[in-house]
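Quick one: co-fold with FE(3)-NI(1)-S(4) cluster.
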Amino acid sequence: CLDCNTCSSDPAAVQMLAVAEANNIGTAWSRHAQQQPQCGFGTTGLCCRICLKGPCRIDPFGQGPQFGICGADRDTIVARHLVRMMAAGAAAHSEHGRHIALAMLHLSQGHLHDYSIRDEEKLLVVAKRLGVATEGRDLMTIVRELADLTLHDFQNQNYDEPCHWLAASLPAPRLKKLGDLGLLPHNIDAAVAQSMSRTHLGCDADPTNLILGGLRVALADLDGEMLATELSDALFGTPKPIVTTSNLGVIKRDAVNVAVNGHNPLLSDIICDIAADLNDEAIAAGAKDGINIIGICCTGNEVMVRHGIPLATNYLSQELPILTGALDAMVLDVQCIMPSLPRVAECFHTKIITTDKQNKIAGATHMDFQEAKASENAKSIVRMAIEAFKHRDPRRIQIPNITQQAIVGFSTEAIVAALATINAADPLQPLVDNIVNGNIQGVVLFAGCNNTKTQQDSAYIAIARSLAKRNVLVLATGCAAGAYAKAGMMTQDATRQYAGEGLKSVLTAIGESAGLGGPLPLVLHMGSCVDNSRAVALATALANKLGVDISDLPLVASAPEAMTEKAVVIGSWAVALGIPTHLGTVPPIVGSDVVSQLVTTTARDLLGGYFIVETDPELAADKMFAAIQERRDGLGIQT
Ligand code: SF4
Ligand code: WCC
Ligand code: FE2
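Sure, here it is.
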């Protein structure tokens, strides 16, 4: 490898990559290099492994075989695999959601003593939205009914009854459109199972029908994300603006550093709670600064937006905190966790702890986390970190002295509350006024991952700067949010430096009236990946206020470094909701013109949303800005 700067635009990651190189420790980047060249059939989606007669490969240039052994053509093969990706993504998000819903149920049954409803107001708001009676009723009865209603979205067998969360949350015209096209799922689990079933050998071989089925499971994914976000808010609190820090410099030399990595807040939130109780034990072990909890990836985002826990890093650089020699434990729950972590940790004292029965890694210590014993389990985990701290090798400690301030916690409620300081009676009106007068041209939601195919974080930064300069309001979730936090783009200075004049004036007016003593940050951190549902809530509120559909709004989404199946499914429901959605990673569908057409032009005709595949950040920004202008034209508000 020649230059670590080509791997990442994050200076702290670059520093640690040099350490990895010097110590001959493999990282995602070195493994990426070893994987080159990657298979052209897989890249274009033209390899099928769905049955044991395969793998079958379609010659992309038309010279060799054009059909798999069963007779499937390129379009069927590409569509089937794409649908399977969506199903896997939906399964992941909604399994997370189910976990939270079951915790709510068990809480209402009196089985969980370490959890409570921290945000009663939020609980009541969502209960009402879902049709649960709240007046004069005991809180736990409401919790029970809300949990039951939520779990019904995993159990309902009436195909014509759409999932409750979607039905209660999307604008009426969108629901109508999706319902007419048969895209409203009745049951999350069934939608996943049906996707697997129809893509089995010898089942659905019509690419159009397959992709429509894919959109149905994508909407099931959105249902799972919505319920995960909203119930987590009720349990752990709805995020409010909070000032914290980000990047590897948040690791403290004189503390027991415990990283939480993964997605589900059920464990990490409790770890944050009990850390203070064990501070004295950490100090007694020689860590004069006590216990320092830091976040990685989306568990990191969850505790960052709710409690201001510093975020060490996002997905692609998750191995690097170990290389500082000062990370004492990394606690893992589910999703986007590299199986390499125990291998990297072998060279250090860091304890890698898996906690979910269904997500173990060979070489890690498994500590089965049970909600009924949450505090007890969390204490054992933190004590493992304190024990590991005693085995540190002080000579190997190198913590990059790099941190950035990050103002985070912009839930939909927090954004509306900030706007309410300008117009209490009608909080959305100032936003609408500024969109109409052109101070804000539109809104972009950045979501999705890191991908070794791109220099880490760089496309996020370039596109956001380019759009912000053109007065586009920037929202972010997941690893996108991590990228912006690390790069110092969630600060007031970033607003002063990068926002166009119109956007700057609006962010300043809102920030000042909301008591921030300056503008809102340039990029608003909405939370984890399931919290993309927060952006849908904001879009829905705007659409409802204007009496239009989401597809009419000057709103675009972007995943410049998309990587996971979860990112594929998020992008797919964004399209289904009518949102022009940029992908900076070329998806494995380019082997089929038919499928490529379906997710671009056909989707646009049917749903208003479509994918924009563009790997060049500047061109991507231009295309998204053009999509925003088109929407403004449609609303008759061109300025
Ligand atoms: Fe080949 Fe058809 Fe089997 Fe796929 S399902 S591996 S195309 S025979
Ligand atoms: Ni969501 Fe992508 Fe990060 Fe994982 S955490 S890597 S799906 S963006
Ligand atoms: Fe995530």
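If it helps, Residues 225 and 530 are 5 Å apart (CA to CA).
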